[in-house]
């Protein structure tokens, strides 16, 4: 997403719009295989370049590895057993999910109010501010993380500022700590939350708020009883996106966390490119993929079901 | 009471400050006149921007990134347009499954794709080649292109096509003269979004790039892992300036919100 797109991979679509496209109008076809012909190039491409490599990664995770013999073509689940048994891997996976959970919470806490404030702004301010909020999605995640590395480490501006304000007495260590990774990841991912809540706010009629006010509800009651229930689906689908992206984030934890503070993605990277234990790296990757898919699909189901109950 | 109170505005200013701080600091540090990392306190200097010229590997990586983005987005569009037309206007067995497959790269962490492609390309002899980079990028950017083209072709009025067909146009003429012009805004924005995603990708590319063929974000990432100096800040600053310029053009022409949210602005 990168957005855009940023960049650390986007799950935006799947989570934000559970069912985007209504079935097309029915129309008798002369050629029942036209749609298959039309999607054939894509299907061939995806079969060869997505399914085959992913299956191969799974098979690789079953191989064994020794420092002298390299990768051995045996089929066993020793790598999975190693990871389940070793407390070092527990720590890395636990840290990954802890960071992702805190980042998701922070994004919801700051992103949702910001989206609401943005909606109540008048143009041209609204357009300008929206540009500032969404713009970072298009800027390379490496450049943005470099900015945090500069703020935390080399220039120490954050600590100078906090001490200048009298908020802290001694400098806080941000580089190579979870705090630093959490702050930088929140910065990278919060635009996704704003986007998601913004999309759900588009369906909210401002007149409903006015109606509640004219009936004597206080601003807090309006917020709690009228606005919040309508944007909860947006916050939830935003949370799914942010959590999934935070749990599999790579560039930001690699730069801010360094090699001292490993998360699942940087662990897999090190096993592949430094230790050269490809089977173990592939095992970490397979576990990360399974966790990601289970969380995205599972939570989407839950959100959709809940959403239905509210509106049917 | 559809106005923001003072607390809301203070929150808003702090939020924007949080978003802008790291981007501004990169630009500020890039203008230092010192030989080390510092904020420009004693005069601004362009020495680190000039220093980029002495490091041709950054310039080469930038060119490679542009070429990779252009080629892979174009390929993704060529695959996505027929697929989107099939999904948007035909009711057929396996339609949902095919759509889910085309969108599935959004759900796979890029680190996993990087590992998968590294293994696969090494095996079939495409390791470290430009062709390998293009093919892998097509896979990850296709969902973005597909979604926008799908939205354009679902909202299209079919009556115009039927009129063309009834007047004797062949299916190819019909596509070229009627359908394509109508979905062109979706196709163009799909290309742009695909290009941006390809250009910014780093996690997957770091696995499959080689020292000879690499992209600018990967080059920057590997450099930062070793040391952080004003040179990387200058390269990042140039990247930020270019992105902001592109963003302003994009916002003028198409609307950033429409591109990212997939809806028109009000």
UniProtKB/TrEMBL annotation, chain B:
Residues 62-250 form the ABC transmembrane type-1 domain. Keywords: Cell inner membrane, Cell membrane, Membrane, Transmembrane, Transmembrane helix, Transport. The chain crosses the membrane at residues 7-31, 66-88, 100-124, 130-150, 178-196, 231-250. The keyword Cell membrane applies. PROSITE patterns: ABC_TM1. It is a multi-pass membrane protein. Pfam families: BPD_transp_1. Gene3D superfamilies: MetI-like. GO terms for cellular component: plasma membrane. It is found in: Cell inner membrane; Cell membrane. InterPro entries: MetI-like, MetI-like_sf. One of its GO terms (biological process) is transmembrane transport. Belongs to the binding-protein-dependent transport system permease family. This is ABC transporter permease. It comes from Azospirillum lipoferum. The lineage of its organism: Bacteria, Pseudomonadati, Pseudomonadota, Alphaproteobacteria, Rhodospirillales.
């Amino acid at each position: 997403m990168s957005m855009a797109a940023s960049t650390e991979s986007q799950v935006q679509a799947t989570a934000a719009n559970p069912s985007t496209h209504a079935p097309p109008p029915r129309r008798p076809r002369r050629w029942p295989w036209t749609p298959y012909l039309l999607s054939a190039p894509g299907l061939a491409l995806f079969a060869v370049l997505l399914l085959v490599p992913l299956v191969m990664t799974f098979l690789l995770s079953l191989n064994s590895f020794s420092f002298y013999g390299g990768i051995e073509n045996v089929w066993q689940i020793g790598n999975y057993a190693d990871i389940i048994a070793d407390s070092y891997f527990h720590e890395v996976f636990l840290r990954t999910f802890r960071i992702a959970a805190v980042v998701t919470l922070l994004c919801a806490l700051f992103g949702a109010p910001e989206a609401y404030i943005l909606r109540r702004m008048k143009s041209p301010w609204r357009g300008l501010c929206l540009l500032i909020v969404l713009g970072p999605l298009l800027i390379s995640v490496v450049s943005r993380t470099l900015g945090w590395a500069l703020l935390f480490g080399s220039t120490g501006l954050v600590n100078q500022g906090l001490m200048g304000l009298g908020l802290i007495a001694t400098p806080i260590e941000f580089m190579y700590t979870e705090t630093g990774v959490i702050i930088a990841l929140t910065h990278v991912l919060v635009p996704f939350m704003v986007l998601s809540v913004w999309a759900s706010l588009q369906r909210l009629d401002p007149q409903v708020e006015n109606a509640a006010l004219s009936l004597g509800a206080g601003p807090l009651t309006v917020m709690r009883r009228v606005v919040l229930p309508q944007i909860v689906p947006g916050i939830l689908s935003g949370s799914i996106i942010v959590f999934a992206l935070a749990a599999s984030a790579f560039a930001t934890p690699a730069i801010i966390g360094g090699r001292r503070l490993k998360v699942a993605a940087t662990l897999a990277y090190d096993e592949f490119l430094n230790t050269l234990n490809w089977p173990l790296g592939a095992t970490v990757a397979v576990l990360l993929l399974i966790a990601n898919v289970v969380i995205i699909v599972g939570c989407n189901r839950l959100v959709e079901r809940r959403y239905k109950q509210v509106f049917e | 009471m559809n106005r923001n109170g003072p607390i809301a505005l203070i929150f808003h200013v702090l939020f924007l400050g949080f978003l802008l701080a790291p981007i501004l600091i990169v630009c500020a540090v890039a203008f230092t006149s010192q030989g080390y990392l510092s904020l420009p306190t004693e005069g601004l200097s362009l020495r680190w921007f000039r220093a980029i010229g002495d490091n041709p590997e950054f310039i080469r990586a930038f060119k490679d990134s542009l070429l990779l983005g252009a080629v892979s987005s174009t390929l993704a569009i060529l695959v996505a347009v027929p697929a989107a037309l099939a999904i948007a206007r035909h009711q057929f067995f396996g339609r949902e499954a095919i759509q889910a497959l085309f969108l599935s790269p959004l759900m796979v962490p890029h680190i996993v794709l990087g590992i998968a492609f590294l293994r696969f390309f090494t095996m079939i002899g495409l390791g470290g080649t430009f062709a390998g980079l293009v093919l892998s990028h097509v896979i990850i950017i296709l969902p973005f292109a597909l979604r926008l083209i799908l939205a354009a072709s679902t909202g299209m009025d079919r009556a115009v096509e039927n009129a063309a067909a009834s007047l004797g146009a062949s299916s190819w003429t019909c596509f070229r003269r009627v359908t394509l012009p109508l979905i062109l805004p979706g196709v163009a924005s799909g290309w742009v979004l695909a290009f941006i995603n390809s250009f910014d990708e780093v996690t997957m590319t770091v696995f499959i790039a080689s020292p000879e063929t690499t992209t600018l974000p990967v080059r920057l990432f590997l450099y930062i892992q070793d040391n952080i100096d004003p040179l990387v800040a200058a390269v990042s600053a140039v990247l930020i300036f270019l992105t902001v310029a592109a963003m302003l053009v994009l916002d003028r022409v198409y609307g950033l919100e429409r591109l990212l949210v997939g809806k028109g602005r009000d």
